[in-house]
Design brief:
The protein has about 450 residues and is of the alpha/beta class. Helices cover about 40% and strands about 15% of the residues. The protein is built from 16 helices and 15 strands. A 7-stranded mixed β-sheet has the order 1-3-2-6-7-8-9, with helices on one face. It has a 6-stranded parallel β-sheet with strand order 12-11-10-13-14-15, with helices on both faces. The longest helix has 26 residues. The radius of gyration is 22 Å and the shape is globular. It starts with a strand and ends in a 7-residue tail after the last helix. The site of uridine-5'-diphosphate (UDP) has 17 residues, from helix 3 and helix 12.
Length: about 450
């Protein structure tokens, strides 16, 4: 049996005061023909990172809308996570290492600051990795034991399950299968894309965050564009009294009276935590009381996390105003909520970013965001309205400086950000998009399957 992720119940009605009657009525209308439909979301991890965050809000709301939705995680072990991290890096266009060691990027040389645009280095794709990925996808197919009406497979880690299930238990593949890709694959290495592509062929539909991410030769005809979203009622995003927020800060020796900049992200070279420290250091010259919070949960499927945490800690040195925190220091949703809310400015200095839920999370709390204009970030940050899009460390310093010096402007950007998120990036919109896609697949699938069967070739 696959491991089921326990979920907390949520009520769609509780979202009415936030999104309005019209949106709730639309969701109810889209959900009506799908009542009782069996839905499975399958991904790699129950904890850490944007996909787990998204599913913890989406799955209970699908249930509240009347669908019979489940969330399960694939079979995995450290050797798989090493491999899937390499897949992730290769799909995001990492530079290749000369050795075949999976993963670990090189840190900055002793005594030198990190480069402004760090390179993410990963091992080239090889047959051993392909074998590991295939074995765990086949094992997950073996453990797959229930029929569904819709199966949504998230990201490349379990993307091969459908292929193996068709061989092992074809009777369980009658669902409409959707591959939800959360990654920016525009610069994917041809090797990994060439490997993955045939495994995608049997899917009925694929979801991408942006049109730019859709590979022109993807062997799936039915493509939907859906942006991720945040849950405004989760403990990470819900309103929080000032005293509670301040108590949490004090627990971590963070002074609520002094200025704070924050980046909430996994310790991952794509998130450039070293670059964030460089930004902080330059700002510190003009704001000597400035504090930096770098909080990153250790995702269960991210073996590089501790390695990169250590590199970041070394780069931070012993500056007591840099707060390097993880879930191992007790940082959970409530603490992330407090840190984002307490920040004068929230940073997201990513080199690549599928969407970057952390950006919407900060904007929803009325805080301005200074972020690199990569991936899905420009959808969220309207530069000069909800924060600033930047393209270098220098620009990041200048824009953050501007917002630190002008509290009124920072608050104005934050307020505009909250409305932008309300309009576009709340979980109810994501739910609505899924329901529409399911409805569409229910009505279209049989005709499309006929036309596509000729052009598909599986491995
Ligand atoms: N996150 C968290 N604790 C941390 C760091 C990150 O809960 O210490 C959450 C963060 O709030 C967000 C998610 O992990 O909800 C990260 O999603 P995002 O899309 O920003 O990036 P990903 O990790 O998927 O690349």
């Amino acid at each position: 049996m696959l491991q089921t992720v326990p979920i907390t119940m949520k009520e769609l009605e509780d979202y009415r005061p936030i999104v309005g009657d019209e949106r709730i009525a639309a969701i109810r209308a889209f959900a009506a023909p799908l009542r009782g439909a069996r839905v499975l979301h399958l991904n790699a991890t129950a904890y850490g990172g944007g996909v787990a965050e998204l599913l913890s809000g989406l799955v209970p709301l699908m249930r509240s809308a009347g669908l019979n939705a489940d969330w399960k995680v694939m079979a995995g072990a450290p050797e798989l996570w090493e491999t899937t991290k390499a897949i992730h890096n290769l799909l995001q266009g990492a530079n290749l290492a000369e050795t075949s060691v999976v993963g670990h990027p090189k840190g900055p040389r002793k005594g030198r600051q990190a480069a402004a645009t760090p390179r993410v280095i990963t091992a080239p794709w090889n047959a051993a990795m392909a074998d590991i990925w295939q074995r765990y996808n086949a094992l997950t197919a073996e453990l797959f034991d229930q029929p569904y009406d819709f199966v949504v497979v998230h990201d490349p880690q379990p993307a091969g399950v459908l292929h193996f299930l068709r061989k092992l238990k074809p009777e369980l593949t009658k669902a409409k299968w959707i591959w939800r890709c959360h990654i920016d694959m525009t610069r994917a290495s041809p090797d990994i894309w060439g490997f993955l592509k045939p495994y995608l062929a049997p899917y009925d539909s694929a979801i991408f965050t942006m049109q730019e991410y859709v590979k022109p030769d993807i062997p799936i005809a039915d493509i939907a564009l859906v942006t991720p979203a945040i849950d405004p009622l989760s403990s990470k995003n819900t309103d929080m009294p000032l005293e509670v927020m301040q108590d949490i800060l004090r627990r971590y020796d963070i002074d609520p009276e002094r200025p704070i900049i924050t980046q909430i992200s996994r310790f991952d070279p794509w998130k450039d935590p070293l670059g964030v420290i460089d930004v902080y250091r330059r700002l510190k010259r003009d704001y000597p009381t400035l504090q930096l919070i770098l909080a990153g949960s250790m995702a269960a499927d991210d073996p590089e996390g501790w390695h990169y945490y250590e590199l970041t800690a070394r780069h931070a040195g012993n500056d007591s105003s840099i707060h390097l925190l993880t879930n191992f220091n007790g940082v959970g949703n409530v603490e992330v909520n407090a840190f984002q809310r307490a920040s004068n400015v929230v940073l997201q200095k990513s080199i690549r970013e599928g969407f970057g839920l952390t950006v919407s999370e900060a904007l929803w709390k009325g805080r301005p965001v200074v972020a690199t204009g990569v991936g899905g970030i420009p959808l969220q940050v309207a530069s000069g309205q909800t924060g600033y899009l930047v393209h270098s460390t220098r620009e990041c310093v200048e824009r953050t400086h501007e917002l630190l010096s002008d509290r009124a402007l920072a608050d104005e950007f934050g307020a505009a950000g909250r409305e932008r998120v309300r309009e576009n990036f709340l979980i109810t919109r994501d739910l609505s998009d899924y329901l529409q896609l399911f409805g569409h697949l229910m009505s279209q699938a049989s005709a499309r399957t006929k036309t596509l069967s000729a052009s598909r070739s599986e491995p």
